[in-house]
From TrEMBL:
Residues 5-361 form the Isopropylmalate dehydrogenase-like domain. SMART domains: Iso_dh. Binds 1 Mg(2+) or Mn(2+) ion per subunit. NAD(+) binds at residues 77-90, 290-302. Its EC number is 1.1.1.85. This is 3-isopropylmalate dehydrogenase. Mg(2+) binds at D226, D250, D254. The gene is leuB. Catalyzes the oxidation of 3-carboxy-2-hydroxy-4-methylpentanoate (3-isopropylmalate) to 3-carboxy-4-methyl-2-oxopentanoate. The product decarboxylates to 4-methyl-2 oxopentanoate. It is found in: Cytoplasm. It comes from the Bacteria. Substrate binds at R97, R107, R135, D226. NCBIfam families: leuB. Its main location: cytoplasm.
Amino acid sequence: MASKKLLLLPGDGIGPEAMAEVEKLIAVMNADLGAGFETERGLVGGSAYDAHGQAISEADMAKALAADAVLFGAVGGPKWDPVPYEVRPEAGLLRLRKDLALFANLRPAICYPALAASSSLKPEVVEGLDILIVRELTGGVYFGEPKEIIDLGNGQKRGIDTQVYDTFEIERISGVAFELARTRKNHVTSMEKRNVMKSGVLWNEVVTQTHKAKYADVKLDHMLADAGGMQLVRWPKQFDVIVTDNLFGDMLSDVAAMLTGSLGMLPSASLGAPDAKTGSRKALYEPVHGSAPDIAGKGIANPIAMIASFAMCLRYSFGMVAEADRLETAISAVLDEGLRTRDILSEGKTEVGTTAIGDAVVERFRALSA
Ligand code: NAD
């Protein structure tokens, strides 16, 4: 890839504080490794509303469409609670996901050995955990029509959502899961509710056909989504890649996230379809956490989720696998040294702020790259 165009959308609350730590890494990669990142900045969420009266301006949307990858901080906060629904901060993120057609949401749940004790599960159940949930993001019950509340005229109302999936949607999300599995432990578990839902029957059928046609080298298991929820908290290390629909993925990825301890540690990626000519995918990388207004501006936010999101960007948008590995090793090393932001602090560890963690990761990364 000739250039590497990154659009930075720090957003609101702790978003800009966390993004600043990634900007340090980008500068180091450009200076030391000649990585060639070209960055632009834009506004999203409440900050975009304050500047333009919109959750994201058309100019910034155009930049997002032209970029190779978008790095997104977080949006929202009480200041913008009164703004009209269509321009609420989250509308900026939804617009980005829709216009970039980001149908595949990747949520890793990695438990760093140094943090195994902060999980609500026993350390031996989560230590060394490394699973990836691939959630379908643009279809299913969150978008299916009809979607309405109707008045039945007899004092009753009826709320309707429609779970709907077409073959191509299941084919393309399972294809993403199988391809990612090939770069990991080569094992996919597909989760649906084929015992009670027609969309689950089709999901199961299409995943099985896609596997047979193109990915027979990958181990495939099917599991009912409720049983999958139980297995995730019983023995999560049995999984490698889990592929599931929008609704089950929303819930299962939050369950998996909590296995690892803190919101401040969790990255994510959302990918679109490969471009027919270049093969590259539109992509947006963001931490799972929100704008954390309760700690914004205090310099105590954990930047690791944002930094780990950048590691995913290196891996999935730019094929910089060695650099992504080094960055993840650097994060792990900083935790092993005992440096902690308040959200992951435990006895005997050293509490430091956002910039100190960011600086330590940069330093470790440079040492590993030397
Ligand atoms: P939140 O994730 O912002 O915060 C939940 C709790 O976790 C808070 O106590 C916060 O201090 C803590 N926390 C979160 N990230 C942290 C980090 N990196 N380091 C240390 N502590 C961290 O969720 P919330 O409080 O429910 O929502 C706050 C605002 O964020 C709301 O306006 C909400 O709509 C928005 N939100 C945005 C996104 C997004 O931008 N993708 C996601 C979730 C929530």
